[in-house]
Amino acid sequence: GQNIDQPTEMTATEGAIVQINCTYQTSGFNGLFWYQQHAGEAPTFLSYNVLDGLEEKGRFSSFLSRSKGYSYLLLKELQMKDSASYLCAFMDSNYQLIWGAGTKLIIKP
Amino acid sequence: GAVVSQHPSRVICKSGTSVKIECRSLDFQATTMFWYRQFPKQSLMLMATSNEGSKATYEQGVEKDKFLINHASLTLSTLTVTSAHPEDSSFYICSARAPKEANEQFFGPGTRLTVL
Question: How many Cβ atoms are within 10 Å of A101's Cβ, its own excluded?
Fold first, then answer.
């Protein structure tokens, strides 16, 4: 079967670093996505990993280990505007996105 | 990246009426569009996959006669919620896949539907 799991909520301090983990199980895999979603808005694309390793993009980095079914999103130098839900999703063999429930990130001053 | 628009952004309607939501890819041709529904504090739930020129593929539990999908052109897909009821109140989001970037979906801004 397929499943994907990520923490429901995390809290971090402005200026700090936070890592949001995502684990998944699937027989067919075509990449792992991270999206950011502010309340009342549609998701916006953050990153895509299809090979093992770390992809860095400014303050955000995403890591993938296909053998472990594991990914994380790393946010550095946290800003108040980073308060949002972060959704991980993997693309299955039919190129369909399977979504996690999202991690609500709360940034405190 | 590619741009996807949705219209309307918000709609309030009476129970029993039908509501049409449009999803357009503005600067690319989308052979495949996806319709999602998101209830408060929950993740995206795929409702259906819309392919241009063919019938939509609905996810299990989604009533195809209630949620009518038409993908008449490469830039437009519509979702019609027929005989809407309060339990249909939700955030409806479409996304489109660009041919050259087959592994990425571009999302519209969403439509907030409130059925009274």
Answer: 17
User: For residue A6, is pLDDT > 80?
Assistant: yes
Q: How far is A72 from chain B (nearest CA, A)?
A: 18
Chain B contact probe: residue of A8, A87, A97 with most B CBs at under 10 A = A97
| Nearest chain A CA: its distance from B21 CA (Å) | 15
Q: Do A43 and B104 touch (CB under 8 A)?
A: no
Say how far apart CA B8 and CA B20 lie, in whole Å.
9
Which DSSP category does B56 fall into?
Answer: P
pLDDT digits (tens, 9 = 90+) for A85-106: 999 999 888 778 889 999 999 9
Residue whose token pair is 């409806």: B92
